[in-house]
Amino acid sequence: MARRSAGRALRALLLQPPDRAAPLTPRGPAASYGTSMTSAKIQVNGVHLHYQLTGEGSHAVLLLPGMLGSGQTDFGPQLKSMNKQIFTIVAWDPRGYGQSIPPSRDFPPDFFERDAKDAVDLMQALKFKKFSLLGWSDGGITALIAAAKYPTLIHKLVVWGANASVTQEDVRIYNGIRDVSKWSEKVKKPLEEMYGHKYFAKTCEAWVDGISRFAEKSDGSICQQLLPDIKCPTFIIHGEKDPLVPQAHAEYIHKHIKGSRLLLMPEGKHNLHLRFAEDFNREVEDFLH
């Protein structure tokens, strides 16, 4: 029954138009201050990583996207509306995603650790001595690993739609999105425009294979053993209607990061930061500030 219901929920996600972001109302003049955006590449660990940067605040924040994601596709409402006086906001495209191509994306066993090192080294190359991490989905996993492995560099941590392990049920969910030809046109279109159909389809299949490999371990762990090493203030957000990541994953992360806070959004799906952007931004800014 769980398998069938997960499949139905997943098909509903992919066959319906994506949730539209809620209208954004800037919270006073500070929220809309300093709207210029830098878009550039910088060489890090042998690859040219693309990033977007906006804001003039003293608190640096890195936004980490999900599978096949980029700053442009995954974080529009955050780049637009987070407080530019308090924060300097950086959104990156991990290697093989967005405009950080070449190289082509691949998924060796340590791909999350590689992304974590790239992300941290990118921020250091941009001369940020300490910064906070906002990670969505795969980017949340990357952020968990970065916070555990580079504790002196991370100020605060926010993750949503993330998991520290892969179960057999997760593998069934992932296989439900393997064939991108079954995705709805509205979900597919921006990714096909960015990557072309062949790269998009091939990379999605490779991602399913890569992340499913973790389920072959006895405990299915991606980074469970690292969670107790996370010492920075941590905020976990989860949408109770997320069809891709069961709530048990958020509860596990919360339980194993000492002092962390968990917020459940009853109407939230996987893309809660887009659908409920104003509420999300407010909660995150209050936590970071």
SSE blueprint and pairings:
Layout: H1 2-15, E1 37-44, E2 47-54, E3 59-64, H2 71-74, H3 76-81, E4 87-93, H4 111-125, E5 131-136, H5 138-149, E6 154-160, H6 168-175, H7 185-195, H8 197-212, E7 234-239, H9 247-256, E8 261-265, H10 272-275, H11 277-288
Parallel strand pairs: 3-4, 3-5, 5-6, 6-7, 7-8
Antiparallel strand pairs: 1-2, 2-4
Helix pairs in contact: 4-5, 7-8
Span between termini: 43 Å
Low-confidence residue ranges:
1-34
- Helical content (DSSP H or I, runs of 4+): 25-40%
Shape category = globular
User: How would a textbook summarize the main sheet?
Assistant: 8 strands, mixed
Averaged pLDDT = 90
Order of helices and strands: HEEEHHEHEHEHHHEHEHH
Regarding quaternary structure, what we see is: single chain
What does the model show?
It contains eleven helices and eight strands. Strand 5, helix 5 (138-149) and strand 6 (154-160) form a beta-alpha-beta unit. Strands 1-2-4-3-5-6-7-8 form an eight-stranded mixed sheet, with helices on both faces. It has helices at 2-15, 71-74, 76-81, 111-125, 138-149, 168-175, 185-195, 197-212, 247-256, 272-275, 277-288; strands at 37-44, 47-54, 59-64, 87-93, 131-136, 154-160, 234-239, 261-265. It is α/β, with parallel strands linked by helices and 289 residues long. Residues 1-34 have low confidence and may be disordered. Helix 4 (111-125) packs across helix 5 and helix 7 (185-195) packs across helix 8 (197-212).
How would you concisely characterize the structure shown here?
With 289 residues, the protein is of the alpha/beta class. The chain contains eleven helices and eight strands.
